[in-house]
Amino acid sequence: xxxxxxxxxxxxxxxxxxxxxxxxxxxxxxxxxxxxxxxFARGAFGSSYSxxxxxVKAVPLTLCALSVACGFxxxxxxxxxxxxxxxxxxxxxxxxxxxxxxxxxxLILLSLILGFAAGGIWAAVPGWLKARFGISEVINxxxxxxxxIGIVGILLQTVLKDPKAFFPVSSYMPEGMWLPRIIPGTRxxxxxxxxxxxxxxxxxxxxxxxxxFRIRAVGSNSRACRCAGIGVGSSxxxxxxLSGGFAGIAGSVEIMGLQHRLLDxxxxxxxxxxxxxxxxxxxxxxxxxxxxxGIAAIQVGAQGMQRxxxxxxxxxxxxxxxVVLLILLRPMIMKAIGGKAHD
Amino acid sequence: xxxxxxxxDLMEAVLTMRHISKSFFGVPADDDIDxxxxxxxxxxxxxxxxxxxxxxxxxxxGIYEADGGEILWKGGRAEFRSPRDAIExxxxxxxxxxxxxxxxxxxxxxxxxxKSRGYPFTDRAYxxxxxxxxxxxxxLPIEPGxxxxxxxxxxxxxxxxxxxxxxxxxxxxxxxxxxxxxxxxTEEFFRVLRRLRSDGRSVIIxxxxxxxxxxxxxxxxxxxxxxxxxxxxxxxxxxxxxxSYMIGRQLRHIERQAAAAGGIGFSIRGLSMxxxxxxxxxxxxxxxAEGEILGIAGVDxxxxxxxxxxxxxxxxxxxxxxxxxxxxxxxxxxxxxKRLGIGYISDDRHHDGLIMDMSLEENMLLRSDRSGFIxxxxxxxxxxxxxxxxxxxxxxxxxxxxxxxxxxxxxxNQQKLxxxxxxxxxxxxxxxxxxxxxxxxxxxxxxxxLLLSYRSQGCSVLLISADxxxxxxxxxxxxxMHGGRIxxxxxxxxxxxxxxxxxxxxxxxxxx
Lengths: 343, 512
Fold this sequence. Notes:
The structure holds 2 protein chains of 2 kinds.
Chain A: H1 2-28, H2 33-45, H3 48-73, H4 81-98, H5 104-133, H6 137-157, H7 191-208, H8 210-220, H9 222-227, H10 232-259, H11 270-280, H12 285-309, H13 314-328, H14 330-342
Chain B: E1 13-24, E2 27-38, E3 42-46, H1 53-60, E4 68-73, E5 76-78, H2 83-88, E6 91-94, H3 106-110, H4 124-138, H5 153-166, E7 171-175, H6 183-198, E8 202-207, H7 210-216, E9 219-224, E10 227-233, H8 239-247, E11 264-275, E12 278-289, E13 293-297, H9 304-312, E14 319-324, E15 327-328, H10 334-339, E16 342-345, H11 349-353, H12 360-364, E17 374-375, E18 378-379, H13 381-394, H14 411-422, E19 429-433, H15 441-456, E20 460-464, H16 468-474, E21 477-482, E22 485-491, H17 498-505
Parallel strand pairs in B: 3-8, 3-9, 6-7, 7-8, 13-20, 13-21, 16-19, 19-20
Antiparallel strand pairs in B: 1-2, 1-4, 4-5, 9-10, 11-12, 11-14, 14-15, 17-18, 21-22
């Protein structure tokens, strides 16, 4: 009981610290507090359009955070969702450019499958290196981001470049491949449904199936799995494949739902923000959805704040960084609160 | 003040714990326990696994916080929030599982975390000299410069005790200290305890081995099911009395019928293994008939673990062949071997046997015969729960529910869960590696009876144990292992020559 109380108290303390910290940051930036807060609220929740904008950002974030969680279950720390996102986007672009004659629904299905496969394989390479040789996946997945982003850059200057465009972008995908808008007049697209289905799929897969159990078991005690005859390497491989796969789908969905073509710097760091979202969501698929929407709201709200009160948007990243620190510190905060209550 | 009429120092309680209670998830682990230790006393805390001994000591040591009660240390009220609090006030504990850094030296381990002379450029030579002084004073021979990973378990324990003495602990808490020692090492260890006592230090020894209590303790406190049964001077009790206090019933004697040995169940020919150029096992051969228990006696660390792991398939072996019921096992994975009917009880349940953060149910899924729990890739939780609950009932595992993480079970109950998981019908070979380590008498007895019942069903059992009594109580034949080889095999027909076995354990080859 006491533990529960201090657990709730610690969450409250983190929330309070975050709010105070945010207000302080806004005040430091020299803008009026009320104007800034009004701008934030209007930007994030002011209209159906702004709410849709929050969800538009939450879609790739959710998918990438699910990706991070899929790796986390087996102890595969995937820092590479960013690169896997781009590789998935490249796969989708190739399909749109080289098979434009196929019917739209087939193109969408093919894109999701190949996006998953491409991102999955991109992550399975570090996965294999970890499973086979015990090489740290943290460094490898991170390095694969640079390789992926470099490849995108090269492709956009060469084979995938739209000859009519001045900037390094691909040509637009055939319209049949565009994901339908689900709220008219906004940019919110059917990728939201894909993200929600993905979360449900991962939940069921990880907690209800045998391969999912193996992944969790290996993440919890790989030595016991070896003694029990559960393949440790294959579980890590599967987990890394899934992990990369969902980041790949994120890239694929972002192309089909929002951008409709491949462009340099398409992700504002979704793959890295995803680590925050996964942490905030406690690696639970539904927690991740909530956390992703929350982060997206902070980011979209920050833009509103900049428009109406001139507060730099960088503030949202500073706040998120602070929140991560506080969350990692939570056990200590809990202990401090529990200790005080005891006296 | 009124106590002055009692014989002086002897009655001075250095530690008093009053009305200590602690429960986990509503299940009381300790219920209103009073406990005290005098200066210069060896006090045994006796009880079966799950009786609440370790919990009580963890409360004293600041690892758990008691739900109720108070602690008096040297006459004043004390509250220990963390082990560091306890250590600073002169209380030290050696856990059942040691907390040493394998790659550091003995001296580095002992002084770990302390700012010693010359810090940050620690004067190692000076420290080593100091350690040697302590070492000589208490008869704890150690080599300060050796790495922990090169030491035997008994030597590592010495380092743990040295760690406490170096920090000038006045009260030493030792959790099941003799569980890992050979008889010779135990004798040596008791000599150390006596020296500590005569030096005015107090020792609490947590144990469930009654003969040891009789031999070494001054007083004994018996716990049963989280309650205190009594505290007695050793002179006032007998082994039988303690045993009935501890388990609340009389011990059964295990009846072992002569083996009706069948055909060859399991055999190894010419097994050799090495690691980094050091031979672990050399040219080892053995046979176990169907319905036979082969006991492997020997001091810990003579190749038993590599042997067990090679049979289960966890370790690769360089040369040699193995077969189970005339099917060759060579080149098979762990899963394939277990599917053929091998059950494995590891000596290290925390790392090898269980996933501590998962529930009892989920740990049941580690069973090799799991096909019944899985339908089309999905886990059949209903079936799994039923089977887990059946195992819990059959093995009398004390738990609140099957959803609880196994971390919260006592050691004995954890071991019972492994047994229930690994031994089921369809298993032809059981590798029982220290199967009763850390288990109480009642649980040990039922484990041994279970092994015997599987033997009578035609199962081959390889029992590897450092506990000779255990080996003798249920084995049909006994092989003695030393330096990765089998020194000789004797039949356990009641006429086995103990001197001969002792000599073989020490490395003398016999042709029996």
